[in-house]
Amino acid sequence: MHKGLSAMAKQFRVEEEFFYSDQKMGSLSGGEKMKAAFMRIFMEEPTVLLLDEPSNDMDVDTLKLLEEVILSWKGIVLYISHDETLIENTANMIIHIEQIARKTKCRYTVMRVPYREYVDNV
């Protein structure tokens, strides 16, 4: 097995044979699908991850893995989420965008602080 794939299998807590399986994506669990999608993306060695509600429909173990991936990522991770636990455990900068008047007025706040500090000060 390729050394990089072996390390990736370990990081994502899957068997090394996962990469060589004939199993169809539709038969994987939600967590396995997320792991497969992340591993496919990481094989391309991106420098930025843009994630939209990444914690939706995940079991607790996969959520913990997602947090570990975000925290260990060397590049930029920008995500949109309503999951306050994910935000609190992983965000080091908050960009809060609010719609003030229906589709006519908005307000934004940018703070380079942990989420809990942001919540406590706003």
- Strands in their spatial order, largest beta sheet: 1-2
Give the % helix: 40-55%
Poorly predicted parts = none
Q: What's the story with the biggest beta sheet?
A: 2 strands, parallel
At the first level of CATH, what is the class?
Alpha Beta
CATH-derived architecture: 3-Layer(aba) Sandwich
Distance between the termini: 51 Å
What is the assigned CATH homologous superfamily?
A: P-loop containing nucleotide triphosphate hydrolases
Report the strand count: 4
Question: Could you explain how this protein is built, in words?
Answer:
The chain contains five helices and four strands. The termini are far apart. By secondary structure, the protein is an alpha+beta fold. Strands 1-2 form a two-stranded parallel ribbon. The chain has helices at 3-11, 30-43, 60-72, 84-90, 115-121, and strands at 48-52, 76-80, 94-101, 105-111. The chain is elongated and about 50 Å long. Strand 1 (48-52), helix 3 (60-72) and strand 2 (76-80) form a beta-alpha-beta unit. It has a single domain (3-91), classed as Rossmann fold (3-Layer(aba) Sandwich). Helix content is 41%, strand content 20%. GO terms for molecular function: ATP binding; ATP hydrolysis activity. It comes from Blautia hansenii DSM 20583.
Q: How do you describe this structure in short?
A:
By secondary structure, the protein is of the alpha+beta class. The protein has helices spanning 3-11, 30-43, 60-72, 84-90, 115-121, and strands spanning 48-52, 76-80, 94-101, 105-111. It contains five helices and four strands.
